[in-house]
Write a structure and sequence with these properties.
5 helices; mainly alpha; 153 residues; elongated; single chain
Length: 153
């Protein structure tokens, strides 16, 4: 159990912390200092470095979460509603990430390749909205993980 929960928490910190940094710190600075021909490739490269970590986080979160539920707690019937809520929100986050990765991120890269800054900016804005949504969901999941068993019966 200590290994599973440690891996689970580390994966959540990497994913949610990365979104927090990108949205709260990097995004406003990049938007204020860089024009689209520089800003869009910056974001594309940032995502290329961050997204493999998100893939790894997703695999670790699913694996360690299910390991804890079935290997330690005795299945979903034995865990509290907060665990079900964390799983549901986590799956929504994963689906949003898959959409970002296979949708707007791919089209952002294509737009950069042909120097279509308008389309690239539109795709980056879509990614921004989806990452903001995932960040809010991620912070909510962290709050549920920290206090859910005390708040949700």
């Amino acid at each position: 159990m200590p290994l599973a929960i440690s891996l689970h928490l580390l994966a959540a910190v990497v994913w949610v912390g990365g979104m927090f940094f990108a949205y709260i710190a990097l995004r406003p600075v990049a938007a204020s200092l860089l024009e689209p021909p520089l800003r869009l490739p910056l974001w594309s490269q940032v995502f290329k470095r961050f997204f493999p970590w998100v893939w790894m986080a997703i695999l670790i979160l699913l694996g360690s979460g299910l390991w804890m539920v079935f290997g330690h707690f005795g299945g979903f019937a034995a865990v509290g509603y907060h665990v079900h809520l964390m799983l549901a929100l986590g799956i929504i986050m994963m689906l949003l990430f898959l959409h970002v990765y296979y949708g707007p991120f791919r089209r952002l890269q294509q737009a950069i390749t042909i120097s279509d800054w308008q389309t690239g900016a539109t795709k980056l804005n879509q990614i921004r909205i989806l990452i903001k949504t995932n960040l809010v969901l991620g912070l909510l999941v962290v709050a549920i993980a920290a206090g859910g068993r005390y708040l949700i019966a």
